[in-house]
Amino acid sequence: MDFATLLGLTTGLGLVVGAIIMGGSFLQFLDGPSAMIVLGGTTAALCVSHPIEEVLQAFNAFFKIFSSRKVTAQEVVNVMVRIAEISRREGLLALENIRTDNVVLKKACKLIADSAGPQLIHDTLRIEIHSLKRRHQIGETVFKSLGTFSPAFGLIGTLIGLVQMLGRLNDPKSLGPAMAVALLTTFYGALLSNLFFLPVAAKLRARTYQEVLNLEIIFEGARCILQNNNPLLVRDKLSSFVPPKERTVGR
Amino acid sequence: MDFATLLGLTTGLGLVVGAIIMGGSFLQFLDGPSAMIVLGGTTAALCVSHPIEEVLQAFNAFFKIFSSRKVTAQEVVNVMVRIAEISRREGLLALENIRTDNVVLKKACKLIADSAGPQLIHDTLRIEIHSLKRRHQIGETVFKSLGTFSPAFGLIGTLIGLVQMLGRLNDPKSLGPAMAVALLTTFYGALLSNLFFLPVAAKLRARTYQEVLNLEIIFEGARCILQNNNPLLVRDKLSSFVPPKERTVGR
Amino acid sequence: MDFATLLGLTTGLGLVVGAIIMGGSFLQFLDGPSAMIVLGGTTAALCVSHPIEEVLQAFNAFFKIFSSRKVTAQEVVNVMVRIAEISRREGLLALENIRTDNVVLKKACKLIADSAGPQLIHDTLRIEIHSLKRRHQIGETVFKSLGTFSPAFGLIGTLIGLVQMLGRLNDPKSLGPAMAVALLTTFYGALLSNLFFLPVAAKLRARTYQEVLNLEIIFEGARCILQNNNPLLVRDKLSSFVPPKERTVGR
Amino acid sequence: MDFATLLGLTTGLGLVVGAIIMGGSFLQFLDGPSAMIVLGGTTAALCVSHPIEEVLQAFNAFFKIFSSRKVTAQEVVNVMVRIAEISRREGLLALENIRTDNVVLKKACKLIADSAGPQLIHDTLRIEIHSLKRRHQIGETVFKSLGTFSPAFGLIGTLIGLVQMLGRLNDPKSLGPAMAVALLTTFYGALLSNLFFLPVAAKLRARTYQEVLNLEIIFEGARCILQNNNPLLVRDKLSSFVPPKERTVGR
Amino acid sequence: MDFATLLGLTTGLGLVVGAIIMGGSFLQFLDGPSAMIVLGGTTAALCVSHPIEEVLQAFNAFFKIFSSRKVTAQEVVNVMVRIAEISRREGLLALENIRTDNVVLKKACKLIADSAGPQLIHDTLRIEIHSLKRRHQIGETVFKSLGTFSPAFGLIGTLIGLVQMLGRLNDPKSLGPAMAVALLTTFYGALLSNLFFLPVAAKLRARTYQEVLNLEIIFEGARCILQNNNPLLVRDKLSSFVPPKERTVGR
């Protein structure tokens, strides 16, 4: 459970709302048509720019930020060392029975147990890593699009408001409030983009990096097990992926 | 038929028009000269920046978004597995009779049937994939250009309006409406760019990615069939291109 | 002769001038000092940022857009097939007599006729392609620089005008016209950049791509002729560079 | 100890404060809610966009700018030459006793002493260099994020202030001061970004480059020692990494 | 001596000053505190963002633009052909006596004379080229930083001026002049960036490209001399680096 994300979102919103209340009424900052232009326009632009499956995938990835447990590089290294120990003790065939949630690790074990050629294992795992990377990047791309479209529709909303306001300039008293309302869409767009869409895109990228790194460890580990079946060597080589401070001493 | 694109375009436009009508008259937002500057200027800049064939190709690609059926990665994998089964049962020569709309798949089958060398097959398919990718990217580039030029000509139109308005400042009453009209070009440019041009460019990129992915599957499949003529292995390797959830169980 | 470029430039300018005249006097949009700041400043920045040879090369490339005939990929493929037929009929030595304007094709033929090693041919043609690409990119870079500097000097001119206007605010009547003049530089800069400099840069990039593609076809063709002297195979392989619809049926 | 960074930060701040005091009261530029929106919003966006470990790592890297001694390329070359001399005199096994703070150098020595295969040494050091590079880049990425979010929340704060000010336009006297306060958030955001966040990100990048260069020297040196155990050759090859003027004459 | 740079800088400045004088007093555009904020702030940000050695290196590179003679590609080709002739007539050992200012050429000659292995020569020259490229890029990076920071501090200065002006709105007469002064910093920042910093960065990049190209010619020439000691072949291959029109006919 990733509390930092939730905390960041709530504190950020709280601070902005707090600053608004300190300066006056909060109601002044709520406007239906303004929200409609920004949210509706951004959603519409998203529907045109991304296939519907990618949009669903992105929101799925967003909710996974909160639910999924992060697997550290050291944990993956430990798993690969344990697998190397099993394969040494019980032979490569024993890898067929290894249970894991990780699709790529499962495939690697199966390929080694099937005694597939090193080239085939190399190619297959490379394709798996590349596919996963691409699928994870979709989430980032969708949220980046949202982060670009929401301020744009904020500007569009403000232009609509300004044109309407300037059209009836005969009543100078209504000028101020009308312009305040016109600026609300720009405010909505900027806030959505900078507090929600762009940060979520960045977090998804950090997540993708972590998962791809873990797959790279699995990839190098599988190559290592195939080449020389020595758990100590596997630990030595794979620990280079882990920051020096976090490296667990072998044995 | 891609309904999401059409739905996005119409809802987005509907929302903007709705928000305009809620705030006043819609007629106020229609202005001939403003549209002329934005649309005409953008078209002119496009004619200078892209050869006429590329512009036609881009609009062709745009209409294909609505008409063409999307072929999923799993479908391509299934086709390649079926081809592997045929080539195993009836020999590589049988691939000559395979019927397909896909130019690259056809060329791959012909090359295998002609028992061309692996290097020639590799090179030829790489060139085919690269050519197709480039042709598809043209559409994206053209719509991105449109998405850059339309707000620029929006700004140019507004500058024209402002200069004219400021030139005859003696009548303060006409100030507001004149400025309202001046802002319309910026509004047109921003709306065209963010609701139409940029989202369409993004959708074309997503399409290109899907097609190139399909060609990569064909490429890997052809290599696999050449190397070891085993349909099970072909399915195993190619299924790595497909998201784990969508993978069809072989046999 | 590339009419689209000329047409785009004249229509674009015509539309803007038309829109100006529809809204008032055209004379109001002409101002000597404003043009001096934008054109002079942009030229000065260009002289600092690019060696004089590159600037001349860029304008040379610009005029070539109008004069030079575009050679299509299919034409180059046909030439390479004909060369393969000659070399098959009359031997590789016959390539020495082939006449062509294309420097790279000439060099390729000479190298093959001299029976240079494949590695030397590969390296030399790679260097030729890379040199030509770089020389063509200079034109694009120079026009992109112009497209960046002209709006910047437009802004600088407007700032000068604003400072002067604000300095003598005692006469409110002159405020409007002074600001109108101040905005002219921004207008000049934006128009020059978006109707001329940036589109020309884009067109030069498209041209470069076409020429590099043609050289790649020559490169692959030369390799093919060296490896197996079969015109049919040469046509088959090189036609992958051409869009499927435009491919001429061999023989 | 990096005085330039500290000096830059203090002089920059001093100049801005000085310019403010020369023009009026400094108190006018202090506003609690404004600081709350910019600092709080930026921090909140950072918590959403980066895992908490990365944020801590970034601030850790920031403080290291001041404390850590810079190791020049020439020093690393000298160390590698000395190691080559030791390994020549006392054999490769002697490298096991070499003491160094550098994790990668230690690993390189251990691998050579263990007489690991050249491929294993190559792969392991490549992974180490890549891991270190990635860890160092995190600091840069975090400060770049801060440099992007702080002006954005500055703009958001100004929008809040403008909306509130325009809402109560009945008191024209309060207009000026209210707008002054509204602009303060933009000022805070721009100052933080351009005097602190972006420059620190740039300095961290320069640091990363220096450390990666040092690792590359270690990597090439280790390869050189393995291939031909000649200290003169090691110095000759590695000195190519050092600017000509700073190269120490060997022996 | 590069007159174009000097001419560009002086004409650009002259045009701007001329336009200012045509529109009013020049003194109005001079303001001490404004210059202090822009120049001081930019310098401070530079000190934080780049190590002091890199800043000195950048200014050193800037002055070299004026002093250093440009060596054309054809000249380097001629030198390499002459070296090939010497090495053919007098043997590879004769290369040890070749005198040149170019560090890389000297190293190449020494390595060939020492009959070092082709791999060692290849690696060493690659490192030399990469090091030189990196050192030259520093100048470009520093001037690009200056070109980014100067308009940013221009904006910061204008914000300070606006806040101070709005704080004492009771005197409407002082409004105009105060705002004029506030805008001066933006003017300074934009002028410095677009007439000086960014163009110089671009010129440094062009210079770097030329020098790296010359090194690539030396690199290819050295490889060619090692492989087959034929001056005619060396000229033939290296002349591919030179634009067709400038190629000198051999012999």
Brief summary:
Chains A, B, C, D, E: Belongs to the MotA family. Chain A is mainly α.
Question: How is this structure best described in words?
Answer:
By secondary structure, the first copy, chain A, is mainly α. Helix content of chain A is 78%, strand content 0%. Chain A is built from eight helices and no strands. In chain A, helix 2 packs parallel to helix 7, helix 6 runs antiparallel to helix 7 and helix 7 (175-227) runs antiparallel to helix 8. The longest helix of chain A has 53 residues, at 175-227. The first copy, chain A, starts with a helix and ends in a 13-residue tail after the last helix. Chains A and D meet through helix 1, helix 7 and helix 8 of A and helix 2 and helix 6 of D. Chains A, B, C, D, E: Belongs to the MotA family. Chains A, B, C, D, E: The chain crosses the membrane at residues 6-27, 142-166, 178-198. Chains A, B, C, D, E: Keywords: Cell membrane, Chemotaxis, Flagellar rotation, Hydrogen ion transport, Ion transport, Membrane, Transmembrane, Transmembrane helix, Transport.
